[in-house]
Amino acid sequence: MRSALYRVPATVALVACLLSASAAAKPVGAHGQLLRLVRGPRGTLNAGQSNNWFGYNEGALEAGAGLFHSITGNWTVPRARQHLKGQAEDSSDWIGIGGGCVNSGCGASDATLIQTGTEQDVSAAGAPSYSAWWEVIPGPSVSIAMKIRPGDRMHASIVEILPASEVWKITLSDLTTGKSHSMRVPYSSTQDSAEWIEETPLLLGANAGLASLPRLSSPSFDRATVNGGPAHLRAAQAIDLINSSGNVIGAPSAPDGDRDGFNACTWTRICAAPRRS
Predict the structure, then answer these.
(1) 3-state secondary structure at position 16
(2) Could you say which DSSP state residue 20 is in?
(3) How far, in Å, CA of 243 to CA of 258, rounded?
(4) Are 201 and 211 in contact (CB under 8 A)?
(5) Phi, psi angles (nearest 5°) of residue 148
(6) Does the CA dihedral 64-229-134-241 come out positive or negative?
(7) What is the rounded distance in angstroms from the CA atom of residue 237 to the CA atom of residue 103?
(8) Looking at per-residue confidence, does 228 or 4 come out higher?
(9) What average pLDDT does the chain have?
(10) What average pLDDT does this structure show over 74-98?
(11) Does the pLDDT value for residue 32 go beyond 50?
């Protein structure tokens, strides 16, 4: 059996907390084994690099941002292909509030995180699998009963129902199939960051370490909003995914023409921006 799979930075204290919180949750994982799936805060190397995230991060301390009460975004479910033969590889695409840097210089980070998205994995035998989920840290990932296919166009939103209510509505919709799932959850968020992210997980167990990144078609994030208005993404908010050797293995493009979307490219340092949409 493959090691347990988590969406957390490589921080021992945080991992221990997540293990305790998710001990009773054992959803069936993408490779057929029982997994506890928890995605988590950004593992930060510096302002523009991470060892588990790539995409865009807006912070509450950036000019005019303030706290985040809502976020939306669309993406195309990427097609996953094996990067190295015989190697199991894992990725997620999601939007979230919390877990990131509170400003573009990454002087501080947000330890809370509420998120929803899709999973795109490849088994050691090269078989891809796709699924959907939501979660609030430090709770376990919760699977959404929705059949996900590569190329499906997804829409996600996370909205605080009333200001300061600490009750959130999470919605994930497959615009291609017309299927949608919503839930309301109580959660105390610091609301200091908002993200549109492609992520690799941390594996726990005998083969502990960050999971390998599959080759993915671009998820083409688009229609990003925060607090009911356009996200106005900026190049300074972009995050590259770096491997243990310090090489870029996942790169977001520059924002598109209306600054509400971007492409995310794997196994390259150069990623072309999508057209205005």
Answers:
(1) helix
(2) H
(3) 31
(4) yes
(5) -110, 135
(6) negative
(7) 8
(8) 228
(9) 85
(10) 96
(11) no
Prediction pTM value: 0.86
Three-state DSSP at 236 gives helix
The answer to whether 134 and 183 are in contact (CB under 8 A) is yes
CA dihedral 261, 104, 55, 241 (to 10 degrees): 160
Bridge-based pairing of strands 4-6 and 202-204 is antiparallel
Measured distance CA(213)–CA(17) in Å, rounded:
25
- The yes-or-no verdict on residue 6 having pLDDT over 50 is no
Model confidence pLDDT, tens digit, residues 133-158: 999 998 878 999 999 999 999 999 99
Closest to 198 in 3D by CA, of 111, 263, 153, 260: 263
Helix, strand or coil, per DSSP, at residue 121: strand
What DSSP character marks residue 164? T
Quick one: which H or E segment has residue 133? strand 128-136
Q: How far is CA 39 from CA 10, 92, 197, 210, 257, in A?
A: 12, 9, 11, 12, 30
The tokens describing 199, both together, are 């992520």
pLDDT one-digit tens code per residue, 35-83: 444 567 787 667 799 999 999 999 999 867 789 999 999 999 999 999 9
Residues 6 or more apart whose Cβ sits within 8 Å of residue 204: 3, 4, 5, 6, 15, 19
DSSP track, 54-84: EEEEEETTSTTT---SEEEEEEEPPPEE-SS
Quick one: which H or E segment has residue 19? helix 12-21
Q: In which band, very low, low, confident or very high, does the pLDDT at 276 lie, cut at 50, 70 and 90?
A: low
Distance (Å, rounded) from C-alpha 5 to C-alpha 135? 14
CA distance 35 to 56: 28
Provide mean pLDDT across the span 90-114: 91
Pairing of strands 238-242, 248-252: antiparallel
Written as six digits, the tokens of 190 are 């610091």
Q: What pLDDT was estimated at residue 275? A: 79
Give CA–CA dist 35/119, Å, rounded.
Answer: 13
